[in-house]
User: Fold this.
Amino acid sequence: MAAILIPDNVISCNGVGINCYMITNHNPNKISLPSVREGDCIGVTIHNTNRVNISANTTQAEQYTRATVNGNMGTVRVHFYVDDKCAWQNLPLNFQSWHAGQSGKADKNGSEKGNSCTISIECIMDSVSGEVDLKARDNAARLAAWLLDSYGGELYTHNYWCNIRNGRTGTVDELNMLDDGYKNCPVFIRPKWEEFKELVESYRNKTGQARYFVQVGAFASRENAENYLAEVKKDYPEAFIKKA
Assistant:
């Protein structure tokens, strides 16, 4: 039996346990990895992927993380895998991820922008209404809400980026819902997209109070900032860089 991964750290965000296991630090098979994000984050992109067979001592999200480390996920690299139990974080949040492609096609406005400027969540589901699937969706909504509160931006579907790549125009929600003729992803969340958006909104910060952040450094060079962030994230995986 393959060894189950042990997270470097476990944190809780909006009621979801997040197992932090950065493939940037754990890469024994030397798989290709995304680079650090150069611009600001513009939001969160939601995906669906199907459940797989797993042993009783692990979770779907751990299995997908392990498959990534073992080189079995092709070129897909996402920030989070989320199931009905928990989430596994694979990439630091200041990194790009590879998730918004369309048959290998990319350009500066389509899948490339989705990859370079959004935080990616793969929600592991097999249906639109099963108890396990609804719990996974709920966990994804809680995580998305926390990320949007922390980093700002819009909520996107994979479909959105495929439609942009195909030259479609419209609002974010119109392109989120418009069939792209290719992925129609997240396939189990999109049929009830408005319901999912409302669920995310219900988990957003509703207190009306300010959110306070502690600054631990200021740098004229982004490279120096990235180097210091790498040290800080050893103890605070959710740390991030904000350009003033």
Notes: The helical segments are 60-69, 111-117, 131-151, 158-165, 172-177, 193-202, 222-232. The mean pLDDT is 89. The radius of gyration is 17 Å. The first helix runs from residue 60 to 69.
